[in-house]
Specification:
- The protein is mainly β.
- It folds into two domains: 2-81 and 96-135, Golgi alpha-mannosidase II, domain 4 (Beta-galactosidase, Chain A, domain 5), CATH 2.70.98.30; 166-270, Sandwich (Immunoglobulin-like).
- 7% of the residues lie in helices and 34% in strands.
- It has helices at 125-135, 218-222, 245-248, and strands at residues 2-4, 12-17, 21-26, 38-40, 43-47, 51-57, 61-64, 70-74, 101-107, 113-115, 118-120, 166-175, 183-193, 216-217, 227-233, 254-255, 262-270.
- The strands form five sheets. The protein has a five-stranded antiparallel beta sheet, covered by helices on one side.
- A hairpin with a 7-residue loop joins strand 12 (166-175) and strand 13.
């Protein structure tokens, strides 16, 4: 699939690394064709001083910019000969596969940020939200009306929206350390705060907010659940940071210091 635009991108374009950060790529004519393709986990974009063209993908594929203003995506490939990887024949039995993309064109203001002589770029806030909607579609489960399964008590979490730049990665119950395979009163909460580019402002403005003070109020989010202590932990949830006890007991419980481009893990006690 080839996308052709009038974006003056020269021989530079950007792809993401594990859906976490964007990496600048360069197309070099002295390299063979296959050496100018790079992995695209979920996003790639071209840009100049006034515009940006972002390709957001629901699946991982290879991407290149072989000419200025163009993006080329490998949807599938066929091999007529064996690749000496154990198959013993060429790959010619391709199956029809659905691919899902969103194409986003944005106006830009200001030049690129540079660190150590290299251009450092991020997706815009709108691009982040669009990419998340592709990667995490809602799952609808429907039971037949004559089902004999007992009805569960209604639970309506997330009474208010998370900040625009905070993504809820996981909220799960932790096992009781005393009784194996029994749930404890603690839950694991993993939050990812996105780093985003401020040079693009969508019109109309987004209907969510973002916290200047890098904090999240748990009582507002998960009402009617009541939370007690909040303790910062490592991503493995096997250790806890050395914080003073007064910082762990907050009423109402707040999560603070969510730094951009980082995943934070917390052990939260339910009352």
């Amino acid at each position: 699939m080839r996308l052709i635009s009038n974006v003056a991108s020269s021989n530079r374009f950007f792809t993401d690394l594990n859906s976490f950060q964007m990496q600048q790529r360069r197309t070099l004519s002295k390299l063979p064709l296959q050496a100018n393709f790079y992995p695209m986990s979920s996003a790639a974009f071209l840009q100049d001083s006034t515009s940006r063209l972002s390709l957001l993908s629901a699946q991982s594929q290879a991407v290149a910019s072989l000419r200025p203003g163009e993006l080329e995506v490998v949807l599938d490939r066929r091999l007529q000969q064996d690749d000496n990887r154990g198959l013993g024949q060429g790959v010619t039995d391709n199956k029809l596969t659905a691919s899902l993309y969103n194409l986003l064109l944005e106006d830009r203001r200001g030049g690129p940020q540079e660190v150590g002589g290299a251009s450092v770029e991020h997706l815009s806030l709108l691009a982040h939200l669009t990419s998340l909607s592709l990667s995490h579609p809602p799952i609808t489960m429907v039971a037949p009306s004559n089902s004999q399964v007992p009805k569960l008590r209604p639970f309506l979490p997330l009474r208010s929206s998370l900040p625009c730049d905070v993504h809820l990665l996981n909220l799960r119950t932790l096992e009781d350390s005393q009784e194996a395979e029994s749930p404890s009163q603690e839950v694991a909460l993993l939050l990812h705060r996105k780093g985003f580019d401020c040079s693009s402002t969508p019109e109309p403005p987004l209907q969510c907010t973002w916290s200047v003070h890098e904090e999240v109020n748990l009582d507002d989010l998960f009402s009617p659940l009541q939370f007690g202590s909040v303790r910062r932990s490592g991503l493995t949830l096997l250790r806890e940071d050395d914080e003073p006890e007064s910082a762990r007991q907050q009423q109402p419980p707040h999560i603070t210091h969510l730094r951009p481009m980082e995943i934070s893990a917390f052990r939260v006690e339910l009352n």
